[in-house]
Design a protein that fits this description.
homodimer, 192 residues, mainly alpha, 9 helices, DNA-binding
Amino acid sequence: MDTPSRRRAPDQTRAEIIDKALEVAAELGATGFTLDAVAARTRVSKGALLHHFPSKTALLEGMIDHLGAMHVESVLAEAARDPEPYGRNARAYLRVTVNEPVTLQDVSIGRVVLAAFALDPSLVLRWKAWMDRIKIDDPNDPVGADDALMLRLIADGLWMSDLFGLHQVSDEQRKALLSLLTPGHTITANEP
Amino acid sequence: MDTPSRRRAPDQTRAEIIDKALEVAAELGATGFTLDAVAARTRVSKGALLHHFPSKTALLEGMIDHLGAMHVESVLAEAARDPEPYGRNARAYLRVTVNEPVTLQDVSIGRVVLAAFALDPSLVLRWKAWMDRIKIDDPNDPVGADDALMLRLIADGLWMSDLFGLHQVSDEQRKALLSLLTPGHTITANEP
DNA sequence: TGACAGTTACCGTCCGGCCGGTATGTAGCG
DNA sequence: CGCTACATACCGGCCGGACGGTAACTGTCA
């Protein structure tokens, strides 16, 4: 039977806090993302919150770890579906970014994360550490690192564009970006 | 002769404030970018600062206008050097981003701007208004809008990567990105 | 099994500083 | 005199974090 104890397993509480923190980030945005707001949403006191995450930065680190793990998992799972081994990770990185629906929640969370990056650049290293698990620079891989880098830059640019609405990228255009991955695609940006 | 008057031309003072504000952003970063810091750097009282820019958001708007105008000017000047008229703006956008040396100051300023975007999304519209002056969607332009968009996404992704050090992009890789603009370039990301 | 100690999860309150913004005064200029 | 470019002094809210507790769980030894 479930013990109605007030005391919970610590990692379970941690996970719940991160979950609710992402909700707060999604709903309140970067300005509303405060420790008080997270504590209130989690129905846990601020003291308890700071017990599990000794600082706001620590909480953000937890969120980044969560998001980073999810993203790496998505990309590697997508890559595993690619029959061609070489360069699959870079292709999967772009495919996931292009295909994943960007919800309003994602946008808000992304903005909070980006604000955290800008305010505390050390957090970027943590994100980078996750992204480095998606290897694209296999020396045996005949697919050029240049092209792999290009795909990632496109994906990152698209992500930022979605966050801020810089470009209205239609579904057709998203598909067109994926056409880069079809064999022998030629850039026409210079050939009228 | 210079009049040692305590009273200056207002737009001159505004320009000086923006100039110093950019310095503060470059040196202090997003957390250190406060009205007091800007006022101190400008050797102007905080009251005077808020006289010219009635809020911190207004000051950021001024900075964004400055940076946006500079960037538009760079891109359009670069585009004017392109003999091929079609798609020149998109190509110039990428070329400027790839070629312009990214100094430490640029990085710090970029982070401050990005933080401002994330904290106050309305500022993004102002930046977007400047970028929209670089037209890439001329209906008479036979260069595909898809490819033009791709070039801008690459440039934006590279900018963000430079800001946060996400990728170590060597000079050779930067050159390789420009090779996209040579006629008939073929993506090899799928052809081992 | 029970008593006692040490540890850990959690609470609620309060503080202190930072920082955006205001209110009020003043000097130069037309 | 009125307008504008300033200065000085000050306010007040927000928010991260500290702190002193308390309750629950985990030994451990008799």
